[in-house]
Structures are given as structure tokens and as C-alpha cells.
Amino acid sequence: MNAEEISAWVSLSEAAKILGVHPATVRNWADRGHLPSQRTPGGHRRFRIADLQHWMSTQESNAEREAQVFVQSALGRVRLELSEQHFAEAAWYRNLDAQARQTLGACGRRLMEVMQRYLSSPSEQALIEAREIGLKYGQAIRSQNLKLSEAVEGFFAFNDLVLDAVMRLVEIGRPTHERTEPVRKVYALTREIIFALVDAYEA
Prior knowledge:
This is HTH merR-type domain-containing protein. By secondary structure, the chain is mainly alpha-helical.
């Protein structure tokens, strides 16, 4: 893109396409002063491409920080549950030996690393890694002669804590129309893990 193109102005809908969001989101950002814009004599918004590019680079950094906060909050919730022995009360957890619990802990830590990357910058590689985690989790649970329903129960006990932490934070830090995006990303990873977990039991 040459200097003339970068200095060009685009419409609201064109800006939305460049940023990959709904036009209403761009309008909201402009109204709140987060995204520079000008109005034509007819009242239509115009956005400079250079401003859009600068804003995107800033948001990438913000997304990484936000993802880190989400994951740290989720880890805090999980550690609290473990320290208060809430997991230990569940039948599926009591039936795990020390090695299986260690494996699940490693799976959980790796999932948090993948989730942090995926929340800040979604990629197909992260979904592949989520499937690998789900497969390893399923194999570990199956080796303990637990039923598939117990394996799913165990995963959702962990996943519910993660979702709760994410939802609490987005309610505080995001406007209403932007709150579903992080939840959808968590769901995308969750879906891959569940598919792989079932595969581990059907293998």
C-alpha cells in the first residue's frame, strides 16, 4: 500500500471491513473517541486508512494484555477451588490416581497457554493444540476406568470456572455489544476439546 493509499479516506462500512468488525462497532468506537474520524458536509463518517492501521496495531497489544488478564483470573479461580478441596468432593476426581491428576494438571496449564494465545489472536494452530489437549485428557481419564460422562463432567467443572472468570471480566471491561466475543473464543476451544475427548473413548 503506497503513501497515497494510506492517506486515503474510507466510509464507515469500508472501515468496518478493514477492521473485521460490524459497522455499529466502528460507529461506537468513533462516538467514544477511540477511533479518529471526520464527517462529510452530508454528515457521513470518513476514516483515514493510516488511522485504522495505527488503531489495529494498538489493539493487538491491548488484546494480548486482556487475554493475559482473563487467563490469570481463570487460573486464580481454579487454584482457589483446588485449595478449598471442591474438586476432591466429586466422585470422578476421587477415582483418579496421583499420576492421572498430574496429567490433568499439565493439560489444564497447557490449555491456559493456548487459550491466552487464542483470545488475543485466534488461529487454526490453537484449535489443533486444543484437540491434542482433549485427546490426552480423554486418554488419562479413560485409563482410570471412568465413564465418558464422568470425563465430560470433569472437564466442564474446570471449564465452568474459566468461563465464569472471563464473563466476570468482560462485564466490567467491555461494552455490552462486545461481551460475546471472548466467550465465543472459549467455546471454540471447548468444542475441539470435547470432540477429541470423545475420540479418545471411541478409539
